[in-house]
Amino acid sequence: MSEVILTPPLKDADLKKLRIGDTVYITGTIYTARDAAHKRLCDLLAEGGELPFELKGQIIYYAGPAPAKPGAVIGSIGPTSSYRMDAYAPMLMAKAGLKGMIGKGKRNEAVKAAIAKHCAVYFGATGGAAALLSKRVKQAEVILYPELGPEAVRRLQVENFPVTVINDVYGGDLYEEALKAYQEI
Amino acid sequence: MRTITYEEIKNTVAELCIKSCNHLGEDVFQKLKSSVHTEKSPVGVDILKQLVKNALIAAADEIPICQDCGLAVVFAEVGQDVHIEGSFTDAVNDGVIQGYADGYLRKSTCTVLARENYGNNAPAILHTKLVPGENIKLTVAPKGGGAENMSALKMFPPAAGRTGIIDFVVETVCQAGPNPCPPIVLGIGLGGNFEMAPLLAKEALLLEIGEKNDDPTFAAMEEEILNRCNRLGIGPGGLGGSTTVLAVHIKDAPCHIASLPCAVNINCHAARHRTKVI
């Protein structure tokens, strides 16, 4: 397990070096999107349309932040449960070139297969460490669907945003491996 | 007869929303801190340390522990000798609206199919009990969606018994895995009926971490569930380890001779609730 610093857009060569359990610090631009935004983006792709922003090589952070207090860049912002985006993630990887996802919790087999097929990665951030993670966000702006409130798409500039590789291009699954290592039954 | 005003109820609910979201209860905080010394996995230890640090930052900056400030679950014990000026339900909902706005808390209530956000986190999920006396005891327990989605209810036949219940709870935790933000707290409702068991489970989440059931039979079940869950290997953040469940609390109620309802309400490590008597 190693420590890596990555800046999107992510390249296949970088993604092939990642293994489950690696700690990655992301510096640069990432985008937030949750269920509602995913549905709209995938509806656009399904109709043959273009996405309103470039996702090629980019990372989506499954997160809906708390409102920023006056003077703050953003409110608390931890990951939401990723399985809710399983219905949409393969299409974003296949049709829009999405390379990275940050969330928490398990992905289904279709997502894991898409990660391997399209050379992508699923990162876990610490669920519930939302106040701590907010300190790594240096800029934030709503770029799409403001009417969705916390579910709007935001462009974030992050610095050393800490994540762990959960699913890599080789089909590895950190949750499964970690469970095997520590279960006593 | 004592009069309690709409304003007092509203302001108290607002204050409790903000405090519960920004300040982790001392019992949970101490349990996270002590788990740092008992967790077997180095990665797990690191996650627990992050959670302790997170709680300290949230309290110092007065920002939410978790961005998911939940649905506002409100338990009210209303003294039957209280006269309330105005609508009690409106006062509670207005308190939620005020608290979530003034506290810069995330608003998460939406319509069920169109998924349109109400933008104010109202309405509260309000449970009101009439009790003797001339006070109102208000508890606000914000509940995030991640852990709530992993919760479960099963209507067992009585033959399932103690073993069936324990197996079901452990299986529910096993299936949830990393999703509900472990280490988690388990509220278990046993008995009652189809709608009462989950309410008992929710009420069980309001107990102090580690508080044992008065009944030795239930206390032994709590301990067995805790030990079995912590041998599953899920660990902090689901990244492996021995700290999967911080506490198990059972609440029971009489049930029908044909039924053995069992509800498991999972709470994340941001196990939030605040109470005030007015």
Q: Oligomeric status of the shown chains?
A: heterodimer
Strand order in space, largest sheet of chain B: 4-2-5-10
- The level of helicity of chain B is 25-40%
CATH fold name of the largest domain in chain B: 60s Ribosomal Protein L30, Chain: A
Largest sheet of chain B: 4 strands, mixed
- What overall form of chain A do the CA principal axes indicate? globular
**Mean pLDDT reading of chain A:** 96
Structure explained in plain terms:
The complex is a heterodimer of chains A (about 180) and B (about 280). In chain A, strands 2-3-4-5-7 form a 5-stranded mixed barrel. Helices cover about 25% and strands about 25% of the residues of chain A. In chain A, helix 2 crosses helix 3 (about 90-95). Chain A has about 180 residues and is an alpha/beta fold. Chain B has helices at about 5-20, 25-40, 40-60, 90-100, 145-150, 160-175, 195-205, 215-230, and strands at about 1-5, 70-80, 80-85, 125-130, 135-145, 150-155, 185-190, 245-255, 260-265, 275. Chain B has a 4-stranded mixed β-sheet with strand order 4-2-5-10. Chain B is globular, with a radius of gyration of 19 Å. At the A-B interface, helix 5 and helix 6 of A face helix 3 of B.
